[in-house]
Amino acid sequence: MTRAQQEAATATALVERAKAGDPAAFNALVRRYRKRIFALALHLSGSESDADDITQDVWIRAFHTLDKFEGRSEFFTWVYRLTVNRAFDARRSRIRRSESSFEDDPRLELAVEVDAHGDPRRAAELRQTYTRVLQVLDSLPADMKTTVVLVALQGLSNAEASVIQNCSRGTIAWRLHEARARIHTALAKRESITRRTDDTLASSSIGEFLWRAVAPSSVPM
Questions:
Q1: 146 near 84, Cβ under 8 Å?
Q2: What is the per-residue pLDDT across 167-195, written as a single tens digit (0 to 9) for each?
Q3: Domain match, 110 and 21 both
Q4: 167: left (phi over 0), alpha (psi -120 to 50) or beta
Q5: SS3 letters for the chain?
Q6: Which domain holds residue 37?
Q7: What pTM value is reported for the model?
Q8: Which of 11, 32, 39, 175 is most buried per CB count within 10 Å?
Q9: Are residues 46 and 124 in the same domain?
Q10: Distance (Å, rounded) from C-alpha 185 to C-alpha 180?
Q11: Same structural domain for residues 125 and 67?
Q12: Cβ within 8 Å of residue 158, ≥6 positions away
């Protein structure tokens, strides 16, 4: 049994126990997936406070609707779908942000902290680049941005993303291709990005996606 299969089996057992009324089992599911759900919510919302609210709402909803989970997909897929739907609601309620509002964006701050390695000059350069990346990422259509976050940033396969977003694998592949093209075009207008945008860019989620955007590689199907 692979590690992924073991994780799925463990989650299935915890779900069955939680459905039977074992609160410790549900708490174990929360501990198991909370960080991933928060990261997904943060990528989709761009706000730490919104991500906290989304994460809390998702687990409350999961608790109250757990009996409706039929197990036709993996538990994490079901919770991811709840998160995406809740994030869409939050996105609709927010006013479009200006570039200056990215100054305190937790995604930007974390990426610069990880990739600058304490170099102030490097930090300033990365801040400009990553701000532009986030602007373009956040301007993508909601479904396309979600696909990018699920596959390029969260590391899900095309198949897993298609289940979460209720669409075909071909649609997922097209969204990734189109997103790369849009990001590459937008970045090319502002700055020169070449293959010298090197290994340091793979250190953070933003950097990894930037690298994927300008030098597409194969993604898991």
A1: yes
A2: 999 999 999 989 888 888 877 765 544 44
A3: no
A4: beta
A5: CCHHHHHHHHHHHHHHHHHCCCHHHHHHHHHHHHHHHHHHHHHHHCCHHHHHHHHHHHHHHHHHHHHHCCCCCCHHHHHHHHHHHHHHHHHHCCCCCCHHHHHHCHHHHHHHHHHHCCCHHHHHHHHHHHHHHHHHHHHCCHHHHHHHHHHHHCCCCHHHHHHHHCCCHHHHHHHHHHHHHHHHHHHHHHCCCCCCCCHHHHCCHHHHHHHHHHCCCCCCC
A6: 1-94
A7: 0.72
A8: 175
A9: no
A10: 8
A11: no
A12: 151, 169, 172, 173, 176, 219, 220, 221
Same domain, 51 and 142: no
Distance CA 174, CA 178 (A): 6
Q: One-letter amino acid identity for 94?
A: R
Lookup: tokens for 19:
């459905």
Q: What is the CATH number of the domain that holds 124?
A: 1.10.10.10
Give the pLDDT confidence of 112-163 residue by residue, as tens digits: 887 788 888 888 888 887 788 888 888 889 899 999 989 888 889 999 999 9
